[in-house]
Every structure is written in C-alpha cells, then in structure tokens.
Amino acid sequence: MTSTPKESMAQNQFSGLSPILNVSSIPTSIDYYVNVLGFQKDWDWGDPPTFASVSRDDVCIFLCQGAQGQPGTWISIFVADVDALFIDYKAKGAKIRQAPTNFSWGMREMNIEDPDGHRLRVGSATNEPSDGVPLCED
C-alpha cells in the first residue's frame, strides 16, 4: 500500500532550520555573535575550527569558514521587543545598519550586519503605521 502525498508530507514534518553563513574567521564570528549579539557558542569543529554553531533561545546559526554559504546572506529573526534589543545591541557596539523602523508589512525591524557582511533583520510584529522609509539594503 502506498501513501498519499498528504500522508507522506505529514510523516516528514520539518522540525528546524539552521542557516549556514560563510565566514572568514570562526573565532571572530563566534566572538561577535556571543559578545555583541548575545548568542552562545554551542560547539566548533576542526583544529583549527572551520565549522561552528551559535544559538540564542530557539535560533541556531551555523558558521562555516571557507566553504558553505555565500557572502552577504540575509536572515530574519523574530523577537518580542526589538526596541529593547536595539538598546542592548547599540551599547555593545553592534553594526546597526538600520534602527528599529515600522514597515508596511506589519513588522518593526532593525537591520544588523556581522563582520562578514551577513545581515540580520531582527523584528517584532506591530500594528503601528509604516514609517514610510525603505528597508536599508546597502
């Protein structure tokens, strides 16, 4: 007996996602994600390390030196209070490309850049009107 496409999809439920960011230095990236962005180092692999994992709450990001991923990758992370996080990140010296801004798609987002040019769009849902400015993409 064969399963239907719907049954097959239910049997293969996706349970997680870990973007892989190509980085130029595992130690530099771990330092930025841990000491500036508040992630924790889960593990690193290799001697010297060429692959690592950092996480914060339910968000996990893999870092790969010299192989997987592309420079300038963008990822979105959803948080409860982007304004409080902005204050923390600003105090820690994060490279903030755009302060919290209300967008027409119902999100209040800030835009952070890591040492390798990867962009983190960190935001909270909002019912406030758009600030009328475009997303900072440069």
From TrEMBL:
It comes from the Bacteria. Gene3D superfamilies: 2,3-Dihydroxybiphenyl 1,2-Dioxygenase, domain 1 (3.10.180.10). The keyword Zinc does not apply. Residues 13-125 form the VOC domain. SUPFAM superfamilies: Glyoxalase/Bleomycin resistance protein/Dihydroxybiphenyl dioxygenase. The keyword Chaperone does not apply. PROSITE patterns: VOC. One of its GO terms (molecular function) is 4-hydroxyphenylpyruvate dioxygenase activity. Its EC number is 1.13.11.27, 1.13.11.39. InterPro entries: Glyas_Bleomycin-R_OHBP_Dase (IPR029068), Glyas_Fos-R_dOase_dom (IPR004360), VOC_core (IPR037523). Pfam families: Glyoxalase. CDD domains: VOC_like. Keywords: Dioxygenase, Oxidoreductase, Plasmid. It is an enzyme of class 1 (oxidoreductase). This is Glyoxalase/bleomycin resistance protein/dioxygenase.
